Structure formats: C-alpha cells, structure tokens
Amino acid sequence: MKVFRVILCILLLTAMTFAPPYLARQSRRDFFAELSAREKPEFTGTVVLYHIVSKRTCTGSVTGWLQAQAEAYQKTHKGTNIIVEGMTEAAFEERLAYGRIPDGYSFFSGALQRDLLQPTTLNPDGLREGLFSDSCAVPYFYSGYARILTAQKDLTLPDSDPVAIRMADPLPKQKDSATAAAQFAAVADLSAVGNILRSEEAGFDCSVEPIGNYTDEVCWLAVGRQATQEQAKALEGFYAFLLEERQQTKLASLSAFSVLASVEDQPVQAGLKEIAKAYATVRTPDPFRLLACKDALTADAAEAAENVDALSRFFERMDALLAHDALENSSE
C-alpha cells in the first residue's frame, strides 16, 4: 500500500511540474478556428473556357453540358471557378479581334489554329481506335454522319455533305429496283439527322443508316497560349475530369460518342443504335491541318462526281490529313 502511495505522489508531482506550461499553451489555441480551417486549394481564381459552336450534336447543347460538368467539378475543387461561354465561329473571331482571349478552348476539328494554344501534360489512355491526342489538344467526344432515306417526295431533306459522301461506304444495293427508284437520300451530320427524326413531317417514312466511321466532328479541349501556369493546371484538372468514365457516359444526353473504348454509347435519340455501332472506331483528320485545306477539300469533293482530277485531289488531301503519325513533326 505504501508503495502505491509513493508512486501516486510521484505522478502527482510530475503532473504539477509539467501541466502548467501545457495548459498555458492550450489556453492560447483557437479551437473553433482549427475546426473550421480547411486545406488551402491548389488554385483560387476564375478560368474562362470558350466553346466554339462550329458543329452541333444530335441532341442537347454542348455549352450547357460543359457548364453542368464545370459546376460538378467545382464542388470538389473549392476556389476554382470555371466560366463556359458558347459562341459561333464568327463571334469567336470578333472576340479575338477585340482582344478577348480565353484561358481554354473547346473546339471542333478545323475550327482553331494551333498557334493560339500551349502544350499540355494531358495524354489520355484508352482512346478508341482511330482517335489520338496532340501535344496541344485532347479529344473528349465526337459526332458523325449518316444517310437519311425516304420514299416521301415532299420531305425536305438537309443538304448532303460532299466530304461525307466521298468518305461514305457505298449505298447498299436495293433488292427491289422499284424501291430503289422511289428512294430519296441525303448524307448529313447527326445534328441534321436528329432534326429530321424529330420532325413530325418525317413520320415513319424516314429512316437512317450508317455510312461508315469517318468523321471530322471530333471536339477537342485545349489551353490558351496566354493562360498562366496556374490557370493551365486548373484547366488540365477539369479536362482530366471530363475524360473520366463517369463523365464520358453522360455524353449520351447529347447523343454524342465517347472517346473511351471502355464506354458503351447509349444515344438518347431513337434510331441511332446502328450509327453508334459503326462509330465504335473512327477515321478522323488532323484537327489543325484540316483548317488549312477545308475549303479546297470541300470543293474537290463537290466536283468529284464529274471530275476525275478533283476526285484524285480529294483523296490525296484526305490521305495526308489522316496520316496522324506525321502530326507532331509537322507542328514543330
């Protein structure tokens, strides 16, 4: 018992010796401030992302979709504010003329010059066969083309895209020549196809079918040349978020196609399942070199039906555009 008392006395003396300094330190702590303190975010500020609307998806709004994803991203990245602005190519060129330069870009192939951009560290894995990333841009979704067929003479079909026609698989031979004679057809992008399918005028007299897997309607993400290092890092974080499977599956609301091989496309627009299967792999041109020869390519495609030389020039240009292995070397 005496031993116990001795030990207890020693402990009490020790506590009395060291407790006052400890208690003094504790009294100076702001416990409420510590409880409310949060880890400082890597980036605090606003980045502006322009979406250049040179193409449209089958359904929905890409600008609206991007803004919704930006809001979701900001919830877990406090301090980062992403402003998404959609505009036509003409409006974009006007903004550039007035010096309204964004921090980042979302653009379709053939709509933007490489010299407006800076290299990124993004190099996404698992892209679908035929897709590729560039040192200055990464793809995040794509749309395409289809053939519209109808026997209804008074149905107003969209204008056929001459380039898509030349790159299309041949029109399947009709078993019934009378049916073939009654068919009216157009090759158009999926935005026009969606409008036709949703039109009450079309009714059940209109159908669509795949034309192959060629498309120049790939949409890319890029960082502007004038963005700061901090802004570039913030944008790259958001772009990586958009390339995750969870966000890629949400492209179904646009009836657009994911760039990831691991994502199965489920377009909301009825009648596009076979089109989606055809676009499981892709043939697509270099997005920057397409800008330089887009007008000439379209003109050659339009003349190719009656001009052998134009047809030859068209495929020479297209072969060069599809040679992605030369992409990096050509940009140095």
Amino-to-carboxy terminus distance: 88 Å
Average pLDDT metric? 86
Helix content: 40-55%
Contiguous helical run count: 13
Specify the structural class: alpha+beta
Query: What series of H and E elements makes up the topology?
Result: HHEHEHEEEEHHEHEEHHHHHH
Give the tally of β-strands.
9
- Residue stretches low in confidence (pLDDT < 50, at least 5 long) are 174-179, 326-332
Principal-axis shape:
globular
Reported for the largest beta sheet, the result is:
6 strands, mixed
Oligomer type = single chain
Estimate what percentage of residues fall within beta strands: 15-25%
- Work out the radius of gyration: 29 Å
Please write out the topology:
Blueprint: H1 2-27, H2 31-36, E1 45-52, H3 62-75, E2 80-87, H4 89-97, E3 104-108, E4 117-118, E5 138-142, E6 145-150, H5 162-167, H6 177-182, E7 184-189, H7 190-198, E8 206-209, E9 218-224, H8 229-242, H9 245-249, H10 273-278, H11 287-303, H12 308-321, H13 327-331
Parallel strand pairs: 1-2, 1-3
Antiparallel strand pairs: 3-9, 4-9, 5-9, 6-7, 6-8
Helix pairs in contact: 11-12
Descriptive key words:
332 residues; alpha+beta; 3-stranded antiparallel sheet; 9 strands; globular; disordered C terminus
Task: Give an account of the 3D structure.
- There is one protein chain.
- The chain is α+β, with helices and mostly antiparallel strands.
- 41% of the residues lie in helices and 15% in strands.
- The protein contains 13 helices and nine strands.
- Strands 1, 2, 3, 4, 5 and 9 form a six-stranded mixed sheet that branches. It has a three-stranded antiparallel sheet with strand order 7-6-8.
- The protein is globular.
- The relative contact order is 0.16.
- Mean pLDDT is 86; it is low at 174-179 and 326-332.
